[in-house]
Amino acid sequence: MVSQSRPVRPEPANFEVFVDTCLRIAAEQDVPLPVGLGDRQAWDEAYRRLRDHTDRHPRPPAPTRSCPPVEPPGSEYEPAQVSVSAPAPAGAVPAGAEAAPRGPLVTRRRIILATPLALAGVAVPLLIRQFGGPAKSGAEASPDNASGDQGYDPAGSLLCPPISPDNPTWSVAFGALHGEPVVIVGRGDGTVQLWDPLTRTARGIPLKHHDKPVFSVGLSSPIAVSASVDGTLRVWDLTADPPASTQLGDRLGGGINGVALGRVRGATVAVSSSDDHTVRVWHPASPSTTGTVLGERLDTEITSVATSTLHGTTIAVTGGADGAVRLWDVEAERAVQVLGTHEAAVWAMAVGAIGDRTVAVSGSDDGEFRSWDLTAPKPGGHTLNRFRVAVKSAAVGVLNGRTVAISGSDDNQIRIWDLATGQPYGEGLTGPDKGAMSIAMGDIGGRTFVVSGHWDGTIWTWLL
C-alpha cells in the first residue's frame, strides 16, 4: 500500500518480479486468482488504477489555514526588472508525425511539471526589495567549471509551511503582476493562491474553485490558468480582488495533468495534457469553448506539457504515460513527430533556449533526465543523468549567463545542469527535505529566481 505522508513507489523491475512471482506461485499451488488478474496485462492495469485512485483521492485534509504573513525587515526599495525566462525563436519545425510504441504501464505518479510560463521578452519595471548584495553579472560562466563552485548560495528560504496535513503543493508558476513579481501555487485540496516573493507574504487566502487537486498552473499576466484532476481548466483574472475564475469549456473525461501558456496570432492560449488521451489548445478569451484536440486522440494518457516557439511558430512538447516525448505545432493544431521515448511515464517537461537553439528537457519515472535539441534535423535525446529514483519536476532558465535545467527527484534532491555542456552546475539547491513536485524559475532584478512546491505542502524560494 501507499503512505500518503511518505509514498512508497516501487521500481518497474521490482513490480514485474512481484507479478511474475505471484503468477508462478498461483500456477504451482493451483490457487484461483480474482477475475481479471490472471495475466501480466491485467496486473498492470490494476496497479495503474490503484496508483491513480491513491493520488487522486488522498485522505481528507484537515481544515485549511492560510500562511501567516511574514513581515520582512525594513530596507530601501529601488527600481529593477522582473521577467520569466522564455526561449527565443529558433530553427524550423520538423515535419512528419509518427506513432510511438506503447509498453505496459506499471507505475503511476501525479507530478507537476514546471515550464517557462511567460512569453519571450517579458520585462517590466517594479520596486524590488534588496536581498543583500548587488545583482549578479550576466556574463557567461566558463563551461570548464561546470561542476564546480559557481558563486551562488544554494540555501533556500521557506516561503510557506504546510497549511494542512496531506496537502501537497502540486504546482507553482512565476511571473509579474502590475510590475511586481508574483508566484501562483496549486494544492492538493483544490485551491490556488498568490504570493509576493519579495515581501514573502500571501496575496490573499487560498481560493477553492476546483473539486480535486490542482496539478498545474500557468501565468501570463494579467491571467493565470489552473488545471485539475477534476477534469477542468479555469482562467483567473488576477486584476480582480480577490482573483475571479471562470471554467474554460466543458469538463473533460479525465484529469488534466498539465497546462502551459503561449501566444497564437497575438492572443494568449493554453495547451493542456490530459488523461483523456488528448493534447488540446484553449482560448481563455473564449471561456465557453472547449479546447480543440491537436492532431487526434492518442492511445495513452498525456502526463506533461511545455510550450515555446520554434522558427516563429508556437509549439508544444509533451510527455506521455507510454514514455513518448512528442512535438506539436500549436498554430497548425497538429502532431509533428515523436522525438523519442523513455522507459516509463514522463511527468516533467520544460523548454528553453541556448543561443538560437531551442531545447527541451524531460524527466521520467524511469529515473532518466534528458535534453532534446529541437532545432536539430533529427532531434535526439541526450541523457543528462540516470537516477535510481523518478524525476518529478523540471524547469529551464538562465543562471550566471548559462542556460540551465533544474531537476527535482524522488531522492528529495534539486540539481542544476548546464545544458550547453550537459554537466552538473554547482552543488544544486538545498533546504527542502521532501521531493519537489514542481519548479519554476525566472528573473528578478538581474538575479535568477527559483520557486518550488513540495510533497509535504511547503513552498521554497531561492534568489541566486
UniProtKB/TrEMBL annotation:
WD repeats lie at residues 207-246, 317-338, 406-427. The keyword Repeat applies. It comes from the Bacteria. Pfam families: WD40. Residues 78-100 have a biased composition (Low complexity). CDD domains: WD40 (cd00200). Coiled coil: none annotated. PROSITE patterns: WD_REPEATS_1, WD_REPEATS_2, WD_REPEATS_REGION. Residues 53-100, 134-160 are annotated as: Disordered. Keywords: Repeat, WD repeat. SUPFAM superfamilies: WD40 repeat-like (SSF50978). PANTHER family: WD REPEAT DOMAIN 5B, WD40 REPEAT PROTEIN. This is WD40 repeat domain-containing protein. It comes from Plantactinospora soyae.
